[in-house]
Amino acid sequence: MKEKRLFNIFGDDSIQHRRVVGGNVTNLFNLNNVKYTWANKLYRVMMENFWIPEKVSLFDDKRAYGELTEAERKAYDGILSFLVFLDSIQTNNLPHISDYITAPELNLILALQTYQEAVHSQNYA
């Protein structure tokens, strides 16, 4: 596969020629006309289902953690370490998937997911 250009002067952003993979687009995010309308709906859902710890009180979570048994804390810590590992893999690899996607509305979703996975890791800290 050729490296994706920052701007492809020979690209065609018309809806009828847009493809998920292997399209010949300009690589500009023209999101006024999209072929995959489900992607716009998914993007909105993803934005509404996202939070950061600064906006949500975790005070009770911290207190509740102190009340767990040793076995419960071990399970909780193990699950959390797995989630950090998983989010790290996703954060580092979603951009590589995006290298193959030529529909801008799908790249927008992948960029948002990459951001959200990175913030997840920060939240666990």
Brief rundown of the structure:
By secondary structure, the protein is mostly helical. Helix content is about 55%, strand content about 0%.
Protein architecture, described:
This protein has 125 residues and is mainly α. The protein has one domain (36-124). It has 4 helices and no strands. It has helices at residues 37-48, 59-66, 70-98, 104-124. Helix 1 packs parallel to helix 4 and helix 3 runs antiparallel to helix 4 (104-124). The protein starts with 36 loop residues before the first helix and ends with a helix.
Record the SSE blueprint.
Layout: H1 37-48, H2 59-66, H3 70-98, H4 104-124
Offer a few descriptive terms:
single chain, 125 residues, mainly alpha
Give the strand content: under 5%
Mean pLDDT: 90
Shape: elongated
Instruction: Report the order of strands and helices.
Output: HHHH
Main pleated sheet: none
Estimate percent helicity. 55-70%
The number of domains? 1
Strand-pairing-aware structural class:
mainly alpha
Are there runs of 5+ residues with pLDDT below 50, and where? none
Q: Termini separation (Å)?
A: 38 Å
Radius of gyration: 19 Å
Number of helices: 4
Number of strands: 0
